[in-house]
Structures are given as C-alpha cells and as structure tokens.
Amino acid sequence: GAGVSQSPSNKVTEKGKDVELRCDPISGHTALYWYRQSLGQGLEFLIYFQGNSAPDKSGLPSDRFSAERTGGSVSTLTIQRTQQEDSAVYLCASSLQQDTANEQFFGPGTRLTVL
Amino acid sequence: ELKVEQNPLFLSMQEGKNYTIYCNYSTTSDRLYWYRQDPGKSLESLFVLLSNGAVKQEGRLMASLDTKARLSTLHITAAVHDLSATYFCAVVRDMRFGAGTRLTVKP
Q1: Rounded to 5, what percent of chain B is helix, strand, coil?
Q2: CATH number at residue B102
Q3: Whether residue A72 has pLDDT greater than 80
Q4: Whole domain around residue B29: which residue ranges?
Q5: What is the mean pLDDT of residues A61-74?
Q6: Does any CB of chain B come closer than 8 Å to the CB of residue A109?
Q7: Range scoring the smallest mean pLDDT among A105-109, B54-58, B92-96, B103-107
C-alpha cells in the first residue's frame, strides 16, 4: 500500500515569502505529525493532529507557522514570511493512533531552502 | 522538559567489530522506538520496544529497553558497511527524538 507522501519534495523560496507544504498520510491513520530536521540535526517536533481533537501546537517555533488537517486526512503546513533559519527538511509522519504501540511512518520530507 | 540523549553522536567502526549506542530519556515511558535514516532519505522504523525488559533483534542489530533506568541500547554485532547510517531513538508518545548517532562502518 501507499506510504506517507509529501509535496513538494524540494522548495526554494525567497525570504519573506509564504510557503505551503503538503502531507498525505497513510489511509486510515488518525494521527499525523510534523517535524523539522535541520542539516545534520535530530528531529524537532512541530505539531500533532489526532482525529478530530484540537491539535497539539506546542512545538511550533513562532506564530509564522501554522498547520491544518482537512477531513482528518491531508495536512498542510504553512510558513508565513519565511526566514533563512526556516531552511530545513520538513518531515510528516502518520500512525494508526497515538498512545498505542503503533509507530510512526515517515514521509520522504520536503527540503525547504529560504534564500 | 523531556530530554532524550543519545551517545555517542558520532561513531566510526571497523567492519566486524561490536558496539553499543545508548539512549537515555528523562521521563517515565514504557515505549521507545529506534529509527534508521540514510543520507538524504527519510526515517525507517527499526524497533518498537513496548515494555521494560523488551529485547528485539533484527540481523546484526539488537535493541533493549530498561524503563527503570530510562535507558535503551542499540547493540551492533560484527558491523558491516551497509549499517552505515544515522540512528535515532525516540520517545514517540512525547514526540521527542534523540539527536541521532551517525554511524560509519569502515572496511
């Protein structure tokens, strides 16, 4: 079956522009996560969606970052007024349900470069 | 704040040698995960450790979990070049990952 997909795979933008990153989770997975991975670093949690519950936004670094999940499936991460420090790989993951034994399955990531 | 600490962060091994990667975490959790990441690729799930004393093995890799010590280990036996990658441990419930251990296996 299809895994987690993300688009675009690469995005180059100019400082100050807005960008939207898309994630399609595995069908049937109710939990969806966004992470950021800077070059050579570990993963930084950004936001988490579980079913129809209010998302956990505790990892968002600033109010320039926001995310939506429509219909409990596709998610979009939006970064407004991008800065050079936003350059990173943005990874999306999904799992059947949080708080169970089901591990997260990761997408291939979107590499964002802010010039 | 939950901390997940891995060591070493960089590991260069000779083929055929054994080594252990350590993952310490600062919260009570009975569930820990190990992932592998190849350069330019996404994360691949290796092990899911669900309870104290859990041990799982796959090929030359073996992972264990001691929830009382808040410690997980990833043991590499008779390393081969194909194991070269970055390995992450994660307390997934809290969405916290270690910084990763970059493993290089040299001939």
Answers
A1: 5, 55, 40
A2: 2.60.40.10
A3: no
A4: 4-51+73-106
A5: 92
A6: yes
A7: B92-96
More confident residue, A40 or B76: B76
pLDDT at site B89: 95
Give dist(CA A89, CA B40) in Å, integer. 10
Of B42, B45, B100, the CB nearest to A109: B42
Q: Does any domain span residue B47?
A: yes
Which residue would you say has higher pLDDT here, A1 or A88? A88
pLDDT above 60 for A76: yes
Please, what CATH class does the domain formed by A5-109 belong to? mainly beta
What are the CA-CA distances from residue B22 to residues B11, B27, B40, B76, B90 (Å)? 12, 16, 24, 11, 12
> Does A96 contact chain B (CB < 8 Å)?
no
CB A31 within 8 A of CB A48: yes
3-state secondary structure of A55: coil
∠ CA B91-A65-A63, rounded to 5°: 110
* Partners of residue B33 in chain A, C-beta under 8 Å: 103-104
Number of domains in chain B: 1
A103 touches chain B (CB under 8 A): yes
Tell me how far apart the alpha carbons of residues B102 and B98 are, in angstroms, rounded to a whole number.
12
